[in-house]
Amino acid sequence: MRIAGKKAVFFDLDHTLWDFEKNSAITFRTIFAKHNLNLDHERFIELYVPINERYWKLFRDALITQEELRYGRLKAGFDAIGFEANDELLHTIATEYIRQLPESNHLFEGAIEILEYLKPKYSLHIITNGFHEVQAGKLKNSNIEHYFETITNSDMAGCKKPHAGIFEYALKAANAEKGHSIMIGDCIEADVQGAIDFGLDAIYFNEFRKEAHPSVTQVHHLLQLKDLL
C-alpha cells in the first residue's frame, strides 16, 4: 500500500544505501596485507561485525567517546581472534581504517535505481550518526552525493539517532514538515523507533528479515520502496 502525502525522504547512509560490511571488509583486507598481519581475515570480519555493532550502540548511548569507539572495537576484534597487537599498531590501523574506508564505494543492490526513481518525486536527505569527514567521503566516492539536498550528521546536530534532536535538526535544515516526511533506515532502534518516537513516519530496511513488530512498515530490498513511495 502506498504511503501518501510525503514530500521529503530521509535516508540513513551506512547499512542502508552504502554497504558498510562489504566496504569495511575490503578496507581491512588492504590494511592487513600492508602490515603483513598473519591472521584469518574472514574469521576476523565474522567476529568484528557484532563487536562493531556493540561499540556503536555504546557510542549512540554516549557511554564511550569517538576515540574509544575507534580503538576499542579494533582491540576487541583482535582479542577475539587471539592476535596480539600493541597499542601503536592498534592506533595506526584505527587511523588508516577511518582514512581508507570511504575509498570503497559499494552500494546496496538497487541503491542508484531507487534514488533515480525517488529524486523527481521527493526532496532527498541524509541523517547519519557517522562522522562528518568519513560520511562526506562515502557519499562523494560512491557518486550519490548529488541526489541529496541536505546531509545531517550527529556532529552538526549535537546528538545522535535515536535522539529527537537530530531529527528536528534535519527537518529544519531540509525546510520539511514532519507530517510530509519519512525516514528510511536499517537500525530498528536508531532509525525507525527514533523517528516514530519523534512523530516521523519510518520504513525499516530489513535486509536480513529480523523479527520486527507487525506495525512497522518494512522492505527487504531497496527497490521494494517503489511499492510504497
UniProtKB/TrEMBL annotation:
What's in the keyword line of the UniProt record?
A: Hydrolase
Reply yes or no: does the keyword 4Fe-4S apply: no
Do you know which SUPFAM superfamilies this protein is assigned to? HAD-like
The organism's superkingdom is given as Bacteria
The answer to whether the entry has keyword Nucleus is no
- Documented EC number(s): 3.1.3.5
GO MF annotations in UniProt? 5'-nucleotidase activity
Q: Which PANTHER family match?
A: PTHR47478, PYRIMIDINE 5'-NUCLEOTIDASE YJJG
Give the protein name, as stated in the record.
YjjG family noncanonical pyrimidine nucleotidase
